[in-house]
Structure formats: C-alpha cells, structure tokens
Amino acid sequence: MLSWGKKIFMLARPLSGRRLGVMLALSAGIFLTSFFSSYAAVVHGTVTDPLGAPIAGATVALVSRSQVIAQSATQHDGTYRLTTSVRGRFYVLASAGTFKQVSTQSFYAGPVDAHQEDIVMEPAVVRQEIVVSATGTPTPQAQLGPSVSVQRNPEFRNRIDLVDPLRQSPGVFLVQQGQYGGLASLFVRGGSSSSNQVNLDGVPIDDIGGVFDLSNVSTMGVEKLELYRGPNSVLYGSDAASSVLNLSTPRGSTAFPSLFYEGDYGNLTTFRNQLQLGGTHNKIDYYGGFSAFQSNNDLPMDKYHDDTASGNLGYAFNAATQIRVTARNSDSASGTPGPIDFYGIPNAGKQSDQDTYLSGTIDSQTSEAWHNMVRYGMARKREEDVNFYAAGIPITTTVDGYTSTNY
Hints:
By secondary structure, this protein is mostly beta strands. The chain has six helices and 27 strands.
C-alpha cells in the first residue's frame, strides 16, 4: 500500500517546464499526424450525362496505383464525395448503367486537399468529347451548337503529319503542293487559308496574318486535335474568321516510366523512328517524345525530312494549383525541284523550316466559382530558301550591251 501510494504521489507532482513542453509537443505531433492521415484528400464532384442531366446511382471509385482506395455511389443530384487517408496521385473511375466506363486524368492530392472532379459520362454507342474551342472552357460536345470535330492520337497514330487526319473532317478542303513537305493549306467552309486560328496548348502558333503550313506538323506529340468549323472571333480575334484548330500535347499518366518506340520503313527510302517516354512521380507528371521522318519522294531533288521533339512537364503544388510547361521544336527541310514536269530538269534547292513553340501556365482553382490562370506563350519560326547551284540549260541573252545567263 505504501509503495502504491508513493507511485501515485510521484505522478501527481507538478510537471517541470521542460517536461510540460515535451509532453505538449508530443501531443501536438500525435494530433497533427492523426489529423493529416485521416483527412489526406477529399475528392468531390458531379456525374452527368452529355446533356448535363445528373446521373444518380453511378459507381465512383478513387484509384491510385491500380488499387481502389475509396468507392461510393452518386446521390440523386449526381454528386459524390470520396475521402481517403492516402496522399499521392489519383484518378476517378466512374461507371453507370448503359454508359461507358470513364476514367479522369490523373491528379495529385495532398494533406487536407479538396479536389473537384466533374465527370461527363458517354453513352455506350456514341462517342462524346470534352472540347474547349467554342467557349474557352472544357464543355461537353453535346451541349454545344457549333460544329466541332475531335480526333485523338490513336485515330491518326499511323500518319506522318496532320494533313490526312484533317481531310477526314466535314466541310474541310485541304490542299498540299506536291508530296511530303509541300505547302499544306487549310480551307474551312469556303473561307480563306489565312482565316484559321491555330493553337498549341492554348498558345497561338500561326503566322502573323493567319497563314499556317500544316505540312511539317508531325503527329508525334499531338494527343488530340480539335477543329471548330466556323468563325469564333469573339474569343480568338480576327484570325479565327473561318475556324479554330486546337492541338494539345500528351501528359504522363502511368505511375511508372512508360517507354514506347515504333518505327517503319517503306519505298522511296521512306522511314520513321519515334520514341516516347511518360509517367508520373508524386507531384510531377512528365512526357517527352522525339520522331525522325525522311523520304526521297518520287521526284529528283525532292527529299524531305522532319525531326520533331515535344515535351510536357507539370508540377502540382496541391490539388487546386499546378504549374505546367510545354515545348515543341520542329526542324524540317524539303527539296524544291521546281517545274520539272515542264522542263524535265529539277532545280537544285531546298526550303527549310525551324519552328519552336513554348508555353508556361500557372493554374489555380480558388473555389468552385473562381478559376485563375496565367499563361505565357512563345512562337519562333524561321524559314530559309537555298539554291545550291544553277541547274538547267544555260541561255545567254544580250540586251543593250548587257549579257545575262538564265537556266
């Protein structure tokens, strides 16, 4: 009894300042650890059909590294809420009734982050896209009145450039002079070829005045092309008097580095090599690609080559704020044989293009009704015409004592 009473007396003694500080620090650490681990990420949003009607009872799952972290069903108004104690990179997987299963783009969520992810379901027999050309913000295609054509990379992956994919769009007339490397101009619904606004990741890349040559835009590094067929000068200015063509660069999505290579070879010494690398790591997503294409074409002195490099790097400060940098560089050159069909003698020259595009974006979602974005864009385009030597039959003429030689 005396021993037990002594122990009680010792515990009841007032704590010293040092001991009290240590206990308070330990208590605060335990509380914060428990708090952050219990509420690492809250993902919420609304599930709707293409027309905007809410879908009740849809199964919504939060997935990280191929594992379902949390799962729920949407309410009568289509809303859902998923809470997890895991921090990292996630994506939302949604399925319902006669709709296709839809997965969102991956995102990062950290301690006490609240991330909004609205999902638009697609009917099982109809493909619907989220487009930005008409309104400037992501909007389901079914909710728009204007005509918009969308093609994703798997639909044109076996094409060298964007000339053939764009020809598949209704109301479009695309003219290319000659073969690979020849000037390619886009005419939409009878409009001029200089009346098309061309954007890459939201940054205008057409020449001053609206002229743009599509012949040297490789399909490598293009995740999606979106063609708004009609004028939209309210959003994009006078260059968009006929159409708006939006191109986007892929983003890394896998939890591990994903390496992809493909190559092919054909006649006329035509070959292509393409290498792409992408993935995610915690707050970072990355993508990089390089392609090399060459063809002799079927005319003398008409060789064409195009080397393209593309990159996309993103960093998420938290679920609401991220910074992203994209870059693309293309070096191409094509021979200029001239009117060989008339004279049978090719001109010994070439035209080369060096195009560099860069964009930087800071994106922040302050609240559901307030979105902030700061974007910087740069386009650097160089063209060069070279004649290596005079080609043809020399013709010497003398006028007023002056002699000149043409070929």
